[in-house]
Write a structure and sequence with these properties.
The chain is mostly helical. It has 18 helices and no strands. The chain folds into 2 domains: 407 residues, Growth Hormone, Chain: A, CATH 1.20.1250.20; 55 residues. The longest helix is centred in the N-terminal third of the chain and has 35 residues.
Length: 495
Amino acid sequence: MTSPLISPTSEGRWTPRLWGTLLVLCAAMFLDALDVSMVGVALPSIGADLGLSTSALQWIVSGYILGYGGLLLLGGRAADLLGRRQVFLVALGVFALASLLGGLVDSGPLLIASRFIKGLSAAFTAPAGLSIITTTFPEGPLRNRALSIYTTCAATGFSMGLVLSGLLTEASWRLTMLLPAPIALIALVAGLKLLPRSEREKDHNGYDVPGAVLGTASMLLLVFTVVQAPEAGWASARTLLSFLAVAALLTVFVLVERRSAGPLIRLGVLRSGSQIRAQLGAMAFFGSYVGFQFLATLYMQSLLGWSALHTALAFLPAGALVAVSSTMVGTIVDRFGTQRLIAGGFALMVLGYALFLRVDLDPVYAAVILPSMLLIGAACALVFPSLNIQATNGVDDHEQGMVSGLLNTSVQVGGAIFLAVVTAVVTAGAPADPTPQAVLDSYRPGFMVATGIAVAGLLITLTGLRPRRGRKSAEPSVVVARSTPKEAERVAVRD
C-alpha cells in the first residue's frame, strides 16, 4: 500500500518525498552497476599488490557474479515475505560494510569473500528496490517514468564506473573498492527516513524452505559451472557433470514449487507470453552486450594499445546517451508500448554490432567506433526500461518482489552464460602465431556470436507483435499506461 505522504498528487506531480524515495532506490542500483564496471580496470593493480594469480583475479569478478546471480530468486521472494523496506535497508548496510572490508584487506581470499558478500547484498537490494518502485508508483505513465529513470541510473553507474576506475586506480586500487561505501551509507540514512514502510505478506502459506534451498543451490551451481567452463573445458567431465547436477536440481525445484502452498516462484507467472518474452529478452540483451564489451575492451587495450581511461572514454557516449534520454523513455513507452520499443532497441543493437565488425588495426574512432556506441546506447535506453515495465505490469503487489528477482536472475544468468560462450568461441580460434591481425581475426567470430544473440532476442520479441485474433494489437499494458488511475482500474477489472 502506497503511503499518502509519498503518493503522487491528484495532478500526477511527484512530491519531494516521492522524488527522495526514487533517488534512494536509484542510488542502490547505481552502486550495483558501478561496482561491476570499476573492478575490471583495477585487476592488474590488485594482482601486483596482493600477489594473485590470473585464476585468483578471475574470482574477484566471479565471486560477485556468483553471489548476485545465485541468490536473486531468494532475494526477490524475501522482499515480498519479510517486507521490502526492511530487506532493502539491511542488504544496503551489508553492502556498505563489505565495500569497506574490500578496500582494507591485505589478503586475496578475504577480498574475494568481500566481493561475494557484496554480490549477495545486491541480490537482495535489486529486487527489493524494483518492487518498492512498482508498488509505490501506480501502473501506467507514472511507473513508466520512474522505471525509465531507475534503469538509466544503472547504465550511468556502469559508464561512470569505467571512467572512475581509470582515474582512481592511478592513485590506488583500494579507492575503487572503498568508493561505494560512503555512497551506500548516505543512501541508507536517507532510506531510513524516506522509504515507505511496507507490510509483510500476511496471507502467505508459510516459508518455502525446500524451494529456497533448491532454487538457490541450482542458480549458484549454474553460475559457478558457466564461469568455470572456459577454464575447465566445456566438454570436460567436471563441466558435464555440473550441468547434469543443475538439471537435476532444477527438475526437483519445479516439482517442489508445483506442490508448495507458498512457492518461491509461482510457476503460473510464466504462463504469460509477455512475461516469458521479458525474461528471455533480458537474457539475450544483457548477454550479448557483456560479450561485446568484453571483446571490444580487449581489442582497444590489447591491440590498439589504448589506456584504461582511453577505453572507458570510448564507451562513454553510449552511457551518456542513456542518461540524457532518461526523462523521455517513459513517455515513449506510453505511446508505443513495451514490445515495439524492445524490438526497436534490439534492431539498433544488431546494427551497432554489425557496424563494429568493420574495425581494423588503425580505426578512425568517429567514423568506425562512435556510430556503434551511439546505436548501442540508444538500444540500452529503449530496452532496459521497457523490459522492467513489461515484466512487472499486471503483477499483483505481493508478487512484485518475486518477479523482480526473476528478471534480475535472467539478466545475470544470461550475462554469465553468453559471456562464457563468446569467450569459448574466441579461445577456440586463438591463432598459433599471435600477430595483431591474426588476433583481431580471432575476435571476429566472437563479435558475430554476440550479434547472433541479439538477433535471437529480436526474433523472440517480434513474436509478441503479432495481433491476437479478435483483439487490438496494442498490449493491455499500453491501454493501462494511457489511462487515468480510475480508468486503469476499470480496465484491470474488465480484463
